[in-house]
Design goal:
53 residues; mainly alpha; Uncharacterised_MJ1172
Length: 53
């Protein structure tokens, strides 16, 4: 949410499903914390590579 200099509030909605975003963030957090050494994506099945199927 942003406020312009005239005090008008603008709410921006994400086009992404909140559950999808949460899963991606968990995967990335695991990577950053060292639980996962690398993220391998199959170019023919990206969703399945991320465990999202």
């Amino acid at each position: 949410m942003a406020t312009t200099n005239k005090g008008i509030e603008i709410q921006e909605e994400s086009p992404y499903n909140p559950e999808f975003v949460a899963k991606i963030e968990r995967i990335y957090d695991d990577y950053k914390s060292g639980k996962t050494k690398s993220i391998t994506l199959d170019p023919n099945d990206i969703w399945g590579s991320l465990g999202l199927k």
